[in-house]
Design goal:
Layout: E1 2-10, H1 18-38, E2 41-46, E3 52-59, H2 62-70, E4 78-85
Antiparallel strand pairs: 1-3, 1-4, 2-3
Bound molecules: [(2S)-5-oxo-2,5-dihydrofuran-2-yl]acetic acid.
Length: 94
């Protein structure tokens, strides 16, 4: 198991065809909801006031995360920042 904190900033070009935009956003939603159901996309939060999200992924490896992120329909239109997480030694839960 490997946990990753990911920030995604969505930057869809203003001149993208509205139909392509709507279809891509719909595919993105379906893809993300499938990964949420699988347990791999554990958290998904909107950053207030921005077309950005903060996500937590629970995957086998950085390679798996890379594959999942590259598969996002909006991947060509996003900037991403990825941070690998490890357990804090002061945590009290198991
Ligand atoms: O809207 C976003 O933040 C981008 C992306 C993440 C999940 C989803 O459905 O779209």
């Amino acid at each position: 198991m490997a946990l990753f904190h990911v920030r995604m900033d969505v930057k869809i070009p203003h001149d993208l065809d509205p139909e392509v935009r709507a279809e891509t956003v719909a595919r993105e939603k379906a893809y993300s909801q499938e990964l949420q159901r699988s347990g791999k996309w554990k958290e998904l939060w909107r950053i207030v006031g921005q077309y950005s999200n903060i996500s937590i992924f629970d995957v086998e490896s950085a390679d798996e995360l890379h594959e999942l992120l590259q598969g996002l329909p909006l991947f060509p239109y996003m900037d991403m920042e990825v941070m690998a997480l490890t357990r804090h030694p002061s945590r009290i839960d198991d």
